[in-house]
Amino acid sequence: MPSPSTPLLPLPRTPAVSGVLETLAFFRDPDFARGRFEQYGDVFETTLLGQRTVFLRGSQAVADLFAQAEAVEGWWPESVRVLLGPLSLANRNGADHKARRRVVGQLFTNAALKRYGPGIVALVNELCEELRAAGGAVALAPRLRRFAFQVIATTVLGLDGADREALFSDFETWSRGLFSFPLALPGSPYARALRARGRLLERLAAVLAQAQAAAAAGAPLAAGGLDLLAGGLDEAGLPLADDDVVEQLLLLLFAGYETTASSLSCLLLTLLQHPAELAWLQEELATLSWPPLPGEELGAYDPARAPRLDAVVKEVMRLTPPVGGFFRRTREAIGLAGVAVPADRVVQVSIAASHRHGAAGEDLELFRPQRHLDGGTTVGLLPFGGGERVCLGKALAELEIRLLAVGVLRQLTLTLEPGQDLTLAVMPSPTPRDGLRVRAAAGPIAMNRRS
Ligand code: HEM
Q1: Residue 448 above 60 pLDDT?
Q2: Mean pLDDT throughout 316-339?
Q3: How confident is the model at residue 5, as a pLDDT?
Q4: How much is the pLDDT for 24?
Q5: What is the CA radius of gyration of the chain?
Q6: Closest ligand 1 atom to the C-alpha of 101?
Q7: Given this model, what pLDDT does residue 320 score?
Q8: What's the rounded Cα separation, in Å, for the pair 433 and 425?
Q9: Contacts of 116 by beta carbon, 8 Å cutoff, 6+ apart
Q10: Protein residue whose Cα sits closest to atom 21 of ligand 1
Q11: pLDDT at 304 > cutoff 50
């Protein structure tokens, strides 16, 4: 951050007035922010649907934003805010927010993750078995979505089969409303999502009540981790009310499912498109056994034991971050990378653009995982955000990704089906347009591609 005596530069602005065309471009053009960063610099303002929005990229601007946490607060578009609900920690700030992060964070401690490890390994093996038995081409992306949903719904929340299926379908309806226009016209995605929200909350409340009853009766550990939440205290030191906890559980489904599913699809797609890097990774995987020894799921493929896998995951998330950006709102005027940003602005941190913005001459458009091992990059990675609102489920997501990558790549040969669209739809998270159709056979993944 510049010293207080350095005068701040005025905030560059696009000429947008109503923001209608700008909003259309924002939704249609994946390079919307990048072109404007090239034109206006690392911090600029435009108008999206009447809302003045500041975009920023790059390590300096991001570090300045995190360093001024008191001057900003969380912000979400209205549709997301309403569908998550007023109690959700995503919609809270200050002590209120911190207390709920502490409570929910109990689901993601090392001890909790150790508990989930065997369940995730079983789900990976189930998926591999299903793919092997399919006998023809299968769309992998939807199966990875289901896998990611099962991890959060079964392994973390402890839902059984029937509850999970009902929840899955309501959840898909709810998600479709998230980035829609927030007007509840009959039959609109937003109206359907609001009704689905009601059902989801009821179901989650019932699951929480069951977990509490089992814990009170001293019954053996229920599946999942909900017993870990018992006794969680709010900012005043009082137990959280059940409806409060239930809204946090809904947030976990939202935050933890689409994102992880996207990272898994992009990981396998990218490896299948880059046979040389896949072969490089396979050399390391050949030294690791699958499944991990019971009780060692957490550390078996960690960055110390599987540095190439770690580098590949980092590089995939650099180029195709599951979350392209996150928001804040300024309560006061602040300076970001030497530029003055007024109070009451929505700020969007562009993760995707930051990940491709480094020192002059860096080959940042290329998929080159080795850059994370040879100290060859200056890019600050922030796929999980940072500061006071850094992703709460980062450790779970990383565990899930490592276990799935090793389990699939050690057990299956995957081949891309020819003639499919492998480009990515970017909203809400990057996913191959044709669903990533592959054929699977037993044995380590093939080095050849068919398209
Ligand atoms: C590859 C997978 C994932 C990615 C890339 C990801 C990324 C992010 C990002 C960028 C944020 C916003 C941070 C900010 O506003 O500064 C976030 C927040 C959050 N994530 Fe994740 N996430 C992933 C998986 C998960 C999982 C598995 C869970 C839990 C089950 C989870 C729970 C959360 C929660 C609760 C928040 C809100 C934190 C807050 O507002 O304080 N995420 N995540």
Answers
A1: no
A2: 96
A3: 63
A4: 81
A5: 22
A6: 41
A7: 96
A8: 6
A9: 151, 155, 156, 225, 396, 399
A10: 391
A11: yes
What digits encode the pLDDT tens for the residues 335-355?
Answer: 999 999 999 999 999 999 999
**The token pair that represents 425 in the structure block:** 């739809």
pLDDT digits (tens, 9 = 90+) for 106-155: 999 999 999 999 999 999 999 999 999 998 999 999 999 999 999 998 88
Length of the chain: 451
Structure tokens at 227: 């017993």
Sign of CA pseudo-dihedral 165, 169, 172, 174: negative
Any atom of ligand 1 within 6 Å of the Cβ of 99: no
Cα distance between residue 204 and residue 142, in whole Å: 23
Where residue 450 falls among pLDDT bands split at 50, 70, 90?
A: very low
71-109 burial: b if 16+ Cβ within 10 Å, else e:
bbbbbbbebbbbbbbebbbbbbbeeebebbbebbebbbe
CA 226 to chain centre: 21
Interatomic CA distance for residues 90 and 101, integer angstroms: 10
Ligand 1 atom nearest to CA at 97 = 41
State the Cα–Cα distance between residues 203 and 129, nearest whole angstrom: 30
Rounded distance, CA 442 to CA 413, Å? 6
State what percent of residues in the chain have pLDDT above 90: 68
User: Ligand 1, residues 259, 312, 320, 388: which to mutate, most atoms within 8 A of Cβ?
Assistant: 259
Q: Is any ligand 1 atom within 6 A of the Cβ of residue 120?
A: no
Determine which residue's CA is closest to atom 12 belonging to ligand 1.
385
**What distance in Å separates the CA atoms of residue 149 and residue 254, rounded to the nearest whole number?**
10
- Scan for tokens 């995707």, then name that residue: 352
Question: Which atom number of ligand 1 is nearest to the Cα of residue 398?
Answer: 1
Decide if 414 contacts 408 (C-beta within 8 A): yes
CA distances from 318 to 34, 369, 427 (A): 15, 10, 17
